[in-house]
Design goal:
With about 70 residues, the protein is an all-alpha fold. It has one domain. Helix 1 packs across helix 2. The longest helix is centred in the N-terminal third of the chain and has 29 residues.
């Protein structure tokens, strides 16, 4: 039951990080949207994620940190 709760809590930050790294950074660079002038290209709009504010980054850090703490507990 604990693993299910941990998975559900990590689902939100995990999806955001997966979209940021896998889609925006990897796929976006393959489509030529990694250059600095591509930020104004409407073709590259699908490869832009809204930036996370400080509170959202603390949520990501807390989720990752609690995963490490939980793995040490086992």
């Amino acid at each position: 039951m604990t693993e299910l709760i941990m998975f559900i809590l990590a689902l939100g930050p995990g999806v955001v990080l997966l979209k940021f790294f896998a889609w925006d950074k990897t796929m976006g660079s393959l489509y030529g949207c990694a250059r600095t002038d591509a930020m104004f290209d409407p073709y590259c709009a699908t490869f832009r994620t809204d930036p996370l504010d400080a509170n959202q980054w603390w949520v990501v850090i807390a989720v990752v940190g609690f995963y490490f703490l939980a793995s040490f507990r086992k």
